[in-house]
């Protein structure tokens, strides 16, 4: 696959799937403020995915609606982290924290990409991603220093989610070319920056970072290997499109 297409599909699919997952908190948030915040950030992510699918369309791929709503799970390049069900709020918040720190750092780096259309999109979107990371930091600090029950639950979610989060940085066959062409700094460098970023926040809580040497990254998503949760989600997402393929989203 062309390195530009490979990178863009990974970026767009992550945003689309997590945006839909986060939207499932609409009306279910623990407090009204969080209900609104999660819904707003979900909408942002869907908008981000549209801009990235538009870049793919400019490179000769199908129109955004077709790409988003007609592929099956093996054709998606999202990491497995984003496709997991929302679970309890502690899990969704932890996923939000780990993913959005990675995305903020990713788009900050992409702002200097040699592929100028992507660099322009990255410069436009990083402001919203900064807000997403700030929101996640606030709640990780608040719950990570709250009651014993809150700390225990957040620690359990962190322990469970981190192996999936490491899958964000799964490399593909185009990685060397992506780096050498200046498209992106690469997943290894991004993971290093991400680890420093999340460690700094977690140091302000009672939460403990698990030993990374003991963790097995959950990978496969970038290569089209997904959990059993993705295809039912895609079927649900595509239901309206299949009824009226001419509708706008």
Secondary-structure map with pairings?
Elements: H1 3-23, H2 32-58, H3 64-69, H4 89-110, H5 116-143, H6 148-166, H7 175-180, H8 187-202, H9 230-237, H10 239-243
Helix pairs in contact: 1-2, 2-5, 4-5, 4-6, 4-8
Question: What would your notes on this structure say?
Answer:
This protein is mainly α and 249 residues long. It has 10 helices and no strands. Helix 4 packs across helix 6. The chain is globular and about 55 Å long. The mean pLDDT is 93.
Provide the descriptors you would attach to this structure in a database record:
mainly alpha, globular
In short:
The chain is mainly α. The chain contains 10 helices and no strands.
Shape designation: globular
Total domain modules:
1
CATH homolog superfamily: Ferritin, core subunit, four-helix bundle
As a percent range, the share of strand residues is: under 5%
Radius of gyration (Å):
17 Å
* pLDDT < 50 runs, ≥5 residues: none
Task: Give the count of helical stretches.
Answer: 10
Quick one: how many beta strands?
0
Helical residue percent?
55-70%
């Amino acid at each position: 696959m062309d390195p530009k297409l490979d990178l863009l599909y990974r970026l767009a699919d992550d945003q689309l799937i997590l945006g839909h997952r986060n939207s499932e908190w609409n009306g279910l948030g623990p407090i009204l403020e969080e209900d609104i915040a999660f819904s707003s950030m979900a909408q942002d992510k869907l908008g981000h995915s549209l801009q990235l699918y538009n870049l793919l369309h400019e490179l000769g791929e199908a129109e955004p609606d077709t790409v988003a709503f007609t592929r099956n799970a093996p054709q998606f390049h999202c990491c497995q982290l984003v496709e997991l069900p929302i679970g309890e709020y502690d899990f969704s918040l932890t996923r939000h924290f780990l993913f959005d720190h990675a995305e903020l750092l990713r788009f900050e780096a992409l702002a200097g990409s040699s592929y100028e259309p992507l660099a322009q999109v990255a410069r436009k979107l990083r402001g919203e991603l900064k807000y997403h990371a700030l929101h996640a930091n606030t709640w990780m600090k608040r719950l990570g220093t709250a009651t014993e029950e809150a700390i225990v639950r957040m620690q359990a979610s962190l322990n469970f989610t981190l192996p999936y989060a490491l899958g964000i940085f799964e490399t593909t066959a185009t990685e060397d070319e992506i780096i050498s062409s200046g498209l992106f700094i690469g997943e290894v460098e991004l993971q290093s920056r991400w680890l420093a970023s999340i460690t700094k926040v977690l140091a302000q809580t009672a939460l403990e970072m698990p030993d990374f040497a003991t963790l097995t990254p959950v990978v496969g998503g970038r290569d089209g290997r997904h959990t059993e949760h993705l295809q039912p989600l895609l079927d649900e997402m595509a239901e309206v499109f299949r009824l009226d393929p001419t509708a706008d989203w």
